[in-house]
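quick one, 260 residues, struct below
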Amino acid sequence: MGGALLKGWFAQGLSPVDIMIVEPGGRAVVETANEHPALTVLTDASELPSDFTPDAVVFAVKPQAAADIIPAYDRFAEGGTVYLSIIAGLSLNRLIEMLGRDAAVVRAMPNTPAAIGRGISVLCPAESVGPSQKRVCKVLMAAAGQTAWVTDETDMDAVTAVSGSGPAYVFLLAEALTEAGIGAGLEPALAEQLAHATVSGAGALLDAEKSSAGTLRENVTSPGGTTEAALEILRAEDGLSQLMKRAVAAATQRSKDLAG
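---
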């Protein structure tokens, strides 16, 4: 996800000289560095210049590595730096514990379509975050697609369940549609082509038309037609709507469990 954001920032015109990357694992985005020779890539926070005060520090690491990495950046907390975390499950309180009570922290939950600039990120600020710092975070996350804000951090569990995990639900739909097509007699390759094109095309239409999903569904459903016959199954009491509610509820609870 950090790499996707980096590509987005460059696409938006951010200069490599304005970015410093710290890659703790030593796997320093070699390809990106080769494409942008002016980009500074370090392997540890101790290598950052002593007089360096960034406008923003973006944390894009695995949750299990956070406790070993984040405290090294606490020296920027009093300099007006805003900390933007895309670490799944790590609460604002936990981040502030590691960075100090003066830290201005924003938590963000992006999703995987960010890799092609078509994601959506939901941001939640700590009380200490000012308007200009919020703008910085919004601009940074806009490189991955749309942005939205919540003020109640407990909403982030449901956000994770809907948009964070949501792409997997759509991919499963494409898989299931492929399997159903094969079951109806289509060759596997054709069934897969039809399912993938239909799912991606419908998503593009939903975005382009700006109509509600319900309106678009109604527009394509002729009374007594084939689509209506299928929707009667999908909208049954034990159909897709109920399954999705249960799935999102399960993902929401797991998000809460992981956050402790």
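The two ends are 23 Å apart (CA to CA).
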